[in-house]
Structures are given as structure tokens and as C-alpha cells.
Amino acid sequence: MVCIAAFIILAVIGIFVAVISIFKPTVGKSYLKMFKKAWGCLWKKVRLQKCETGFKDDVKNTLLSRVIVKHPKWVKPLSAVVEVLSVVIVVVAVWAILTAIKSLLALWALGSCNVTTPSKCSLGAEICSIDEDEPSNIFEATGRWFTEWGEIFEAIPDKFRTYNTSDYDFNYITANDIAGVERPVAIDIFDPGCIVCLESYINQKNSGFFDEYEVHLVPFAIQDADGSYKFENSDVVVRYMFAAEQLRSNLAIEILDRIFTSKDSEGVPYQTRFNDYYTEDEAASTVEGWLKEFGIDDGEIEEIRKVANYEETTTKMSENRNIIENTLKVRGIPTMIYDGKKHTGLWAKK
């Protein structure tokens, strides 16, 4: 283990030695000689051959040379410490390499380098993440580490598969239905409180995406590990959208469009109001006020309010959540399915 640990340390030190060698070539030559010995020892270990004891002794003698002169009795215990530290260095190095590989695979397969809490990954697409509960102790963390490998390997085949929109039985809202025009279907999963979803919606609207595709909008209120909603009042808005759609086609789209594209009398975007200012009652009251503006009378608004709180509406939301989190294994939204592919993150016209 000493020679392997020495190789790891020398490989890291090599970055600095390369700079120093520009000014002091002798340092580089001495380092290169030691590095070649370390590499030779490591290569023998890889081939399950016995490493040269000379190199191991060179390392120990270098580290313990001063101790031998002043404290000869310390040599044996310190030699054991060197062996233990070598094991620790090798274990940590292997763990770091495996973690790096896992993060890269997760980023490629799932769109986030952090499987459990995508919000902690600064790489990948712009998303509103769907996080899981983090492990509370080392045993859970260890188990979770191996579970994440399983999720990654399970997701890899999905990168090469064809996604058919007809395979997913979502409860959805059809955007901008153009009668008599046959268009390919696109599924668009979003959260009314998600700023990236807002930006994607505006991009799609301005680019004519809703005219090119028959878009099935799937409202989804992201929940955190403790069951609370990531965005305040998303649950209320999703319920009203499903209820309003039953009364009149495209009524839910008018609600969504108001949240995503309009501001209140003070110039504050409505999405910000719903996320940061409104109580649940104020959110519901605001949506009902919009419904009146859209030509819905008081009796119909009362019916929409009842449907929004029906168990059937809760079931629709639960069914969508199951497909999104367990079938599609989505780690962040917006997520879209169209042209046989799954796309996660901010949508922009190619």
C-alpha cells in the first residue's frame, strides 16, 4: 500500500513540480526518477506481481530519516503509522475517483450530478429540482450511495430509447387546441411556481411551439422530502387548473398564461406574488378573480372551487406524480417529451 499511496501523492505533487521545474530543472529530474519508481511499483501491483521492496523502503527511509537519528525507538511504531496512512490515502483516492465517475454518469443519464438532491448540482440543465430526503446517518448514506449507482445504471438505457407520448397516461390540459389540424403530440411537465418553467413557456409561446405541436400540459406541484411544496401555492393553482379545464377548454391555459406572463398593479410578476406573498386563501381568491374576468359567473366559480378540492382531483395529481417520479424518473422540471425524446431543463428553440 505504501508504494500505491506514494504514487497517488506524487501524481498530485507533479502538478506543482512541473511549474517549479521551469526554474529548477534538477527538482524535476529528481521527481521524475521517484515517479518512475512509483509507477513501476503500481504497474506490478495491477498485474498482481510483487512490488520491489527497495522502493517501499526508500519511501519509509525518506519519511523517517530524521527520526532514526534522534529517536530510534520511534521507528517501528511510526513505520506502522505510515502503513496505516497509506491504506487511508489509497481508500480515499479510490472513493474520490468512484464518486467522480458516479457524478459524471448521473449528469449524463439523469441530468444532474447529484442523484438524491439535484438542487445541489451546479452542472447540467437549468431545472427546478425534485429532491429526496438526505440520509441522516453514515449507514443510510452508505446504502444510499450504492442505491444511487443502481438508479444510474437503470437510467442509462433510457438515453437510447424512443419515448412515445402515448405510453404515458397523464392527466393533462391541452394547450391551444387547433380544431381539424393533425399535429404531433408533445408532453410538457411544469410547476406553476417554477421560474425555469415560466421561461420555457414563454420561449415555446413566442416560437410557435404550441402551433407546431398538440401540447399536453401536465401541471405538477413539486414536493420536498418532508411533504411540503417547493413553491408556495403551486398545489392551489394546479387544483384550480384541473377544475377549470372541466368547465371550459383552454380556461386552465388562461390561468397559467396570467401567472407566467402578467404582473399585478404594482408591477410585480404574478408568479412572484404566488410564491412569496400570497396565502393559500389569497391565491385561491386571485385565481377566482381572474375567472370572473374570463367571463365565468359566480355559480360556475363555486363549482370550480368544489371540484378543485374533490378527492378525484387529488387522485389525478397523485397519478401524475407517480408517472413523473417513478416511471419517468424525472429529477427536475420542466421536462418535455416530443419527437421520441425526453428533454429536461429550460426549453429553447434549436
Rg for CA atoms:
30 Å
What strand order characterises the main sheet? 2-4-3-6-7
Structural class, please?
A: alpha+beta
Helix share, percent: 55-70%
Order of helices and strands: HHHHEHEEHHEHHHHHHEEE
Kindly report the average pLDDT value: 78
The CATH architecture of the largest domain can be named as 3-Layer(aba) Sandwich
CATH topology of the largest domain: Glutaredoxin
Largest sheet: 5 strands, mixed
Note the total helix count: 13
Number of strands: 7
What is the 3D form?
elongated
Query: How many discrete domains?
Result: 3
Please identify which CATH superfamily of the largest domain we are dealing with: Glutaredoxin
* Span of the ends, CA to CA: 52 Å
CATH uppermost class of the largest domain: Alpha Beta
As a percent range, the share of strand residues is 5-15%
Poorly predicted runs are: 1-10, 12-20
Description of the structure:
With 350 residues, the chain is of the alpha+beta class. It folds into 3 domains: 2-70, no CATH class; 96-159, no CATH class; 162-344, Glutaredoxin. 59% of the residues lie in helices and 8% in strands. The chain contains 13 helices and 7 strands. The strands form 2 sheets. Strands 2-4-3-6-7 form a 5-stranded mixed beta sheet, sandwiched between helices. It has a two-stranded antiparallel sheet with strand order 1-5. A hairpin with a 2-residue loop joins β6 and β7 (341-344). α1 (2-23) packs antiparallel against α2 (25-46), α1 crosses α4 (75-110) and α4 (75-110) crosses α5. The protein is elongated, with a radius of gyration of 30 Å.
